[in-house]
Structure formats: structure tokens, C-alpha cells
Amino acid sequence: MPDLLVSVKDNIATLTLNRPEARNALSPEMRELLRTSMQELATDDNVRCLIIKGAGDHFMAGGDVKSMGPMLDKAPDEIRNDFQNRIYEGINSIMLAMQKMPKPIIASVSGAAAGAGVSMALACDLVIADPDSFFTLAYCHIGTSPDGGASFQLPRIVGTKKAMEIALLGDRFDARTAQGLGMVNFVAEAGALEDETKKLATRLASGPTNVYGNTKKLLYRSLDNEFEAQLQMEAEMFADCASKPNFKEGVTAFIEKRKACFKVE
Q1: 3-state secondary structure of 173
Q2: What's the number of CA atoms in the CB half-sphere (13 Å) around residue 234?
Q3: What pairs with residue 112 in β-bridges?
């Protein structure tokens, strides 16, 4: 079985991290499959929303630490170059593709989200978690600093002081705590994670996909834009949406007091 399973049903693509025996640790094969799948799904008109989840009991317990062992019997400069290339070509390209994905991505978190699992969840647009799931950045426990965009996302979501606590101590915290910090949007009822994830994905898959894509661009660019540049970008994105059939449908439905029926554009 491949390390990543991809299925599409009812305009929803489900990407299942498929190494349950290793708590879905991020293997080289999984990284490559995630990268190529993101590229394909971005242009697939049959897909209007993505779900990322883990097979078995856990979301993702970080990188594949066992595979790192053989890389350490080299000179320090070689180790540095090997890991830099591994991160650039592997996880960084995935995180960039997720942010640029013109469709909403939901992380459905059960069990452990550790290390790169936290980075993966934070890179998704929305996070729904099982009440028994837990989070730990954990990088400090293996003697390294975070990757996968965690150092970018965390301070913006939880504030610098809390991000320092999460990163420097590597402590474990539960889904309700993560929700209180803003890292998780929704905590499902016990035993209802799959159903509630599907309900959320179905809602997004029936929405105006092109609008979601433009909204993602606006929100992610707002982290770096100055106010005037953001206002200009808002005007451009609004005008782009207004030129598409979904805007006409939305306005018409509002006037006619009915629910809009949005289509892929």
C-alpha cells in the first residue's frame, strides 16, 4: 500500500496519511506523494475541498526519525546540506502548495499531531480535532528546531510568548487547549470526528470555490502586505469574483430569497 491514499467523492478529495504502524510519520514516499497530489488536485475541477487525515489512530507523529539515523554518519557540512535539501525539496514544497491551493483544506486530527504533524495541521485552512487528540511541537526533544512553517504560523496564531513556550518546552496539550489558542477551529464530539469532518467538507464543497481561492490569497498575503497594498488586492480579488457566474448567482439568489447554487469556475 502506498504511504498516501487519495480518493475523490462528492467533490471532496480525501488524502489519508497511510503509515499507521509508524503513527503516519512523514516518509520520503509520503512527502513526494503529497507534493504531486497537491499539484494534481489544484487543477482538478471535480475537487472543491480537500481533507487531510491519518490512517489508524493518529494524524501524524512528525518526521520519520528512524530514516534520519543513516544520514548522521557524515561530516557536519554534508549533514547540513543533506537536511537542507531534504526540507527544501520535501516538506517546504508541500506547505507552499497547500497555501497556494485554490480550494479549502481541512485537517481532520485524531490521536497525535506531533512535530511536522503540527506543521501540517497549521498549514491547512481549517482544523477539526477529536476530543482525545493531542498536540506537541516536539522538535526540541530530538535536538532540532521546527520546520514545515511552524515557526511562521505559530507566532501569528498564538502570539510570540506562547509560541516560545510551545516550541522551547515541547509539552503536550489537548484539543480543547489547542482550540483555545486558535490552532484548532472545531473539536468534534467523541466518536463523531469523521461525520463532522464530512459535514464541514460538504458545506465547503458546495460553496463558491473560486471565491474561496481568492479569499485564501487575501488572508495569507495579509500577513506580509501593508494596509494600502492589501486594500488594492481586495479590490482586485472582489472585481475578479464579480466577473464570474457565481457572483451573479449569489446576487440573484439573495434578491430572490433562495439559497445560491454555486458551480466550479
Answers
A1: strand
A2: 9
A3: 134
Helix residue ranges per DSSP H, the chain: 28-42, 76-86, 93-100, 116-123, 150-158, 160-169, 175-181, 193-205, 209-221, 227-242, 245-255
Among 98, 84, 58, residue whose Cα is nearest residue 145: 84
Asked if residue 26 lies in contact with residue 91, where contact means CB atoms within 8 angstroms, the answer is yes
Backbone angle region of 257, left / alpha / beta, with phi > 0 → left and psi within -120 to 50 → alpha: left
Predicted model pTM: 0.94
What average pLDDT is seen over the chain? 94
Q: Domains of the chain, with CATH numbers?
A: 4-205 (3.90.226.10), 209-255 (1.10.12)
- Each residue's pLDDT tens digit, 100-128: 999 999 999 999 999 999 999 999 999 99
Indicate whether 75 pLDDT > 90: no
